[in-house]
Structures are given as structure tokens and as C-alpha cells.
Specification:
single chain, 324 residues, Methyltransferase, Cobalt-precorrin-4 Transmethylase, Domain 2, 36% strand, globular
Length: 324
């Protein structure tokens, strides 16, 4: 049963389930055990590997509901049936999704757009019978959100998880969730239109911080590490403090924010200036690690690949995590 996965606090229960489900036999065992949907588990069996309008709405509800309750796992490719005597939706069979890798990429692209605040750390993985198979089950982990309650962007409602259902949160619950928010949620943000290639050959990359919580961010410290400094000819900044001499072998810049960071008012903490090495087939990819610390906030870190091209700028987040 699911309780065997839940080692530790309730906050970690859904993550424990997600990490434990890695093989096809794990899914078969859930069905053999008569497992049912519940606080941490939701199953869906889409007929095709495409996120249509209806599935997007259901996904937005699930992200909001799991985020506002205790986190959860969505298994895409498993059907359920409701038992009359218990009313529970019991897992019945695996209905693998064709081209499950494509379906996973759709999930990764759409999840950050479906809610406010956006849920950026919701990993998905494929679970196949054989590694070479193109069909399989996709598992998505939605973590519990610390901060303001999460709202669906598709119907502008707040949801919570009650038993095995997603339910619209009543006003009193939403009010309590907002009043309970005493921690800011500062995250790095990249704006492509602000990045530019200066005349001296340096790329100028503003490091922006946004607050996804209604709690004010105070005494924030932002640390930026260039992970592939060897791919750069020069790295500098006019407004970030260079602390590389304090971190031997690393290229580290820091910013101490003197003011506060409010939700809805993004703050530029400094601009990183980078000149990439001139190589025959230069990819111009800058790898950054950004960590943010602030009063009453659990420190947050991301790793990003910044693609620098004369006519295009793009960022891909490769890792997001709480630091402790």
C-alpha cells in the first residue's frame, strides 16, 4: 500500500511515492494491491498522447489542489473504477500512452503556464516495460507549495485535495491560506528583451528576482556562479560583487539587496557581463547557478543553461531545488 512509501513528514510523502515508482512492476504492484486514488495519488488514462483542452483544465486543477494540500503524484496511463461499497476509485489496469516521451515534453512545457504562482519544480518521468518501448506511463510529481495558495489560470479558482477528489476551496480556506503566508518566495527570472550584445562584444545579462508570494522579501542575498567559466574569455560586472577570490576555483558574484522585494514588482539585482571565447563552432552556452537567500525564506537554487545567439536568447532551467 502507499503507506509503505511514506517515510518521514507529510510534506515528503508525495515525493517518496514519486521516487519509489520507477519500474513497470511497481505500477503492477499498485494494481495488484488494490490501491486507490487518495490524498497523494491521481490517475488519468488519456486516449492519445496529446494534452487537449479538457486535460489541461484537469491538470491545472490537479496542480492547484496538490500544491495547496500536501503534494501529490499524477500517473498518466492508468485507469480506475469506482467501487460501489467504498466509493473509492481503485486502480484497475495500465493503459500505456503511445509516444510517452512526447507527452512528457508537453507536460514540462505547459505546467508552468497553468497556475498563479507558477509551479516551476514539477518533474515528470516515463515508466516503460522495456527501455526501448515508445509507449508507457508518465508520472508527474506536484510538490506542496510553500507560500501563497496556487490558483488555476484556466478558471481562476483555488482547489484543494479532499480524499481522492479535487474540490474548489471555499473563501474561508483561501483567506486562511493567504493569512498563513509569512514567507517570501524569491526566484530568479530572465527577460530575453533585456539581454543585449554590447558593442565591446560583451553579452549583458540582467539578473532579475521576482517574489511569488505576498509576503515581502527582505535582506535578500543573491549568489551567481558561472559553472563553465572556461568557455568564457572574460566575465565581469559593474554592480555585482566579485567574490571569486573567496571561492577558490569558482567564478562567483553576489548581490545584497538593500530594499525589499514585493510581489508583482520585479527587481534587477545586477548585470552579468560575459564575453564568450571565439571558437570555430562556438555554441555560446553559458551555465549558471543562482542561489537566493532572504529572511523567513527557505533558500532556493536553480541551474540554468543560457543560450546566447545574435538573433535569439533562451534559457533552460536544468535543476531547481530548496537548498535545505
Amino acid at each position: 500500500m502507499l503507506t509503505s512509501y511514506f517515510q518521514g513528514s507529510t510534506d515528503d510523502a508525495s515525493l517518496g511515492l514519486y521516487e519509489a515508482l520507477s519500474k513497470y512492476s511497481d505500477l503492477e504492484n499498485l494494481i495488484a494491491d488494490g490501491e486507490a486514488e487518495g490524498l497523494h495519488l491521481e490517475c488519468k488514462a488519456p486516449g492519445s498522447p496529446r494534452l487537449g483542452k479538457g486535460l489541461k483544465k484537469e491538470l491545472a486543477e490537479a496542480i492547484s489542489g496538490f500544491s495547496n494540500t500536501a503534494g501529490g503524484v499524477i500517473l498518466w496511463g492508468i485507469s480506475t473504477i469506482q467501487r460501489a461499497h467504498s466509493g473509492l476509485d481503485v486502480l484497475t489496469q495500465i493503459e500505456p500512452i503511445g509516444q510517452c516521451g512526447s507527452f512528457l515534453r508537453q507536460l514540462e512545457a505547459i505546467i508552468p503556464t497553468l497556475t498563479t504562482p507558477p509551479v516551476l519544480s514539477a518533474p515528470s518521468k516515463t515508466i516503460k516495460r522495456r527501455s526501448k518501448d515508445t509507449q508507457g506511463v508518465v508520472a508527474t510529481h506536484i510538490p506542496r507549495h510553500i507560500g501563497d495558495p496556487v490558483q488555476s489560470n484556466l478558471d481562476h479558482r483555488f482547489y484543494f485535495r479532499s480524499g481522492g477528489e479535487f474540490t474548489i476551496a471555499p473563501y474561508q480556506m483561501i483567506q486562511r491560506l493567504f493569512l498563513a503566508t509569512d514567507s517570501p518566495d524569491l526566484r530568479p527570472r530572465f527577460e530575453g528583451q533585456l539581454v543585449k550584445l554590447a558593442k565591446d562584444g560583451f553579452w549583458e545579462i540582467p539578473i532579475i528576482v521576482e517574489n511569488q508570494s505576498s509576503a515581502v522579501g527582505q535582506h535578500a542575498v543573491v549568489s551567481i556562479v558561472v559553472l563553465n567559466a572556461s568557455a568564457c574569455d572574460q566575465i565581469s560586472s559593474r554592480d555585482l560583487v566579485d567574490e571569486s577570490h573567496l571561492n577558490i576555483g569558482k567564478t562567483v558574484f553576489r548581490s545584497n539587496l538593500s530594499g525589499v522585494v514585493h510581489r508583482g514588482i520585479n527587481t534587477v539585482v545586477g548585470t552579468l557581463r560575459v564575453k564568450m571565447k571565439m571558437e570555430k563552432r562556438a555554441r555560446r552556452v553559458l551555465r549558471l547557478s543562482i542561489e537566493i537567500y532572504a529572511d523567513k525564506m527557505r533558500a532556493w537554487g536553480v541551474e540554468a543553461c543560457v543560450q546566447l545567439a545574435k538573433k535569439r536568447f533562451s534559457v533552460k532551467l536544468t535543476n531547481e531545488r530548496y537548498l535545505y
